[in-house]
Structures are given as structure tokens and as C-alpha cells.
């Protein structure tokens, strides 16, 4: 299996690579912050690999994330059972309307590939498994945290790329899973308190389980 691992920034890609055995045939690329960069960067890399006759056969989105308090603590590893477009939709007087509510045909939720999910769970038995939200604005107040949880009560973490990378994988007909490590609690913004080093170390520790996916399929 030829896996494409996409991250947002180089520090995340470096953290993944640092945890992989040198022999593992896996491509790790930083494609930019946000769902648009993730979708475009993932789609381009998938297309180039296919055109070169070395198509990727699965996509993993890896990186740091915010964790909902009481569900995913700073330093924890989170495996996405699904990646959710949490703020893509429309406002109305009755509340937020999701992509599903609007009926455009693009689903709000991309479910992780069952085999990739099971393999990652096996390799990371202490990981939290659940819904990871994709947002275009980092949540930074108690009010918006509560609104997000009212909208997606099962969510465990939020980041900014999963849904975009998942959509690119789905367009290519490829299995997908999102893997995150928690750098900060979701809530009132205290950027100085983000424990990015701890999250990147956790990403390095989780990387062997990603590398093992190459043998799993
Ligand atoms: O400043 C650094 O050294 C540094 C190192 C690695 C990564 C970063 C980023 O800022 C990555 C941006 C990335 O972080 C995700 N993220 C993390 N926490 C949250 C959150 O609470 N809400 C939404 N996204 C979060 C996100 O996926 C961004 O792409 C900096």
C-alpha cells in the first residue's frame, strides 16, 4: 500500500517522519492550513502520483488539534472515526444549517475507512476515537465552543484540514483516516498555552502506527 500522509505545516510533517522507520514506503507532505489547502494539496499529489504510474492507495491526514475538554486532553492522540465539515453551511433564524440540511449533495460527514480505522486503533490502543471537526476558524470563546458542541455533540476534537483531505481522497476513490494529537483545549483563546511541542512529540510517537498501515493493506 502506498500511503499519502498530508499535514498542514512542515513541523507536523517532520514530526511524523521522525517516528517512521527509514524503510517505510510512505509519502509525507505539508500542504497548508485549512480545508481548501488540504483538499487542493492532497488532490494534486494524488493526481501527480497517478500520472507517474505510482498511484497512492490511501490517504491519512495527520497533525495537531484542539481537544474538547473532558474528551481529549492535551498530549492525547485522537483517531477520527469521522471527519466533519462543522462550519460549512448557512445561518438561519432557526440556527445553523449544515451541508446535509441544505441538501447540496456534498455530505457533512466523511466516515473513516473501516480497515484503516481498525488498524490505527490496534496500533494506538490508548487513543481517543471519535468525531473530529474541521473548522475554518479556530474556536476561541466559551460561546462558540458551546455552539459547536450543540451542533456536533459527539465531537472530541477540532482541526482545520480533515474534511478537505477526506474529500480529495473520496474523489480519488481512496480510503481515508484522520489522526490528530492535542496541542490545546478548545475554548477561550490562550495561544501562549498551546503545548505544540507535546503534541508534535505525540505525533512522532503515533507515527509507527501510521507506518504499519503500509503492511496492513
Ligand atoms: O508554531 C508552531 O511551531 C507550530 C508547529 C506546528 C503546527 C502549528 C500550527 O499552528 C498548525 C496549525 C494547525 O493546528 C491545528 N489546530 C491546532 N489546534 C487547533 C484548534 O484548537 N482548532 C483548530 N485547529 C487547530 C489546525 O489543523 C491547523 O492547521 C504551529
Automatic annotation (TrEMBL):
Pathway: Quinol/quinone metabolism; menaquinone biosynthesis. InterPro entries: FL_hydrolase_MqnB, Nucleoside_phosphorylase_d, Nucleoside_phosphorylase_sf. It is an enzyme of class 3 (hydrolase). It holds the Pfam family PNP_UDP_1. It comes from the Bacteria. Its EC number is 3.2.2.26. Coiled coil: none annotated. Residues 25-214 form the Nucleoside phosphorylase domain. Keywords: Hydrolase, Menaquinone biosynthesis. It catalyses: futalosine + H2O = dehypoxanthine futalosine + hypoxanthine. PANTHER family: 5'-METHYLTHIOADENOSINE/S-ADENOSYLHOMOCYSTEINE NUCLEOSIDASE, FUTALOSINE HYDROLASE. Catalyzes the hydrolysis of futalosine (FL) to dehypoxanthine futalosine (DHFL) and hypoxanthine, a step in the biosynthesis of menaquinone (MK, vitamin K2). Belongs to the PNP/UDP phosphorylase family. Futalosine hydrolase subfamily. This is Futalosine hydrolase. The lineage of its organism: Bacteria, Bacillati, Actinomycetota, Actinomycetes, Micromonosporales. The gene is mqnB.
